[in-house]
Specification:
Layout: H1 3-13, E1 18-22, E2 28-33, H2 39-48, E3 56-64, E4 72-80, E5 85-93, E6 99-100, H3 109-120, E7 124-125, E8 154-159, E9 164-169
Length: 194
């Protein structure tokens, strides 16, 4: 098959960028990179090289691991339709690191990078239109972070008369939504440390 030459090309193209490579699966090769700023060089080689020809970005997603040294994990999944191969490239980064945008290489990255910015707050440099895409513009915070508060004090709704989204205090419409923090077994009040 094509795994050995392709893995060799990837290894020879950027040996100092790789942490590990795994091709145990028959249809997917997995690569972990050391440095965030090298991702654009990697994708230039994979996209423009006639042998690799990874011409389609299928997915791009981020994960939040608050207890890890590098808190966020970014994963790209690209496909070579000519070689019938799938490649997953991942790397870890901290909260204050920037990621180079690959939206000039893959047009699908435009939406996916905006989604990661909106949900996790990870900033992409040289992105043509980095703004919120899933939440409204007045929204504060990034909802897929593990440290995002679950319960807030404001809720949003669309007002038909004003034709805009309005913020109002949270109100529970169900009568059973009153929370009693008494422990029913020993009648002691439970306290939570913030």
């Amino acid at each position: 098959m094509l795994f050995l030459p392709l893995g060799f090309i990837i290894l020879m193209s950027f040996p100092r960028y790789l942490i590990s490579s795994d091709n145990r699966r028959k249809s997917c090769i997995e690569i972990s990179l050391k440095l965030v700023h090298t991702i654009k060089n990697v994708f230039n080689i994979l996209f423009y090289d006639t042998f690799t020809n990874f011409n389609s970005l299928v997915d791009m997603f981020s994960q939040d691991f608050p207890n890890y040294k590098k808190r966020f994990q970014i994963n790209y999944i690209v496909v070579s339709t000519i070689n019938a191969l799938r490649l997953r490239i991942g790397f870890g980064l901290n909260d204050n690191q920037f990621i180079p945008s690959i939206s000039k290489i893959f047009k699908a990255a435009n939406w996916l990078e905006r989604e990661i910015w909106d949900m996790h707050g990870l900033f992409f440099t040289n992105h043509p239109d980095l703004r919120r895409i899933l939440s409204d513009y007045g929204f504060e915070g990034h909802p897929l972070r593990k440290d995002f508060p679950i319960v807030g004090f404001l809720q949003t709704r669309f007002d038909e008369e004003l034709l805009s989204v309005i913020y109002e205090p949270v109100r529970f419409t169900q009568g059973m939504r009153t929370y009693n923090f008494l422990n029913p077994w020993n009648k002691k009040k439970i306290t939570y440390n913030d």
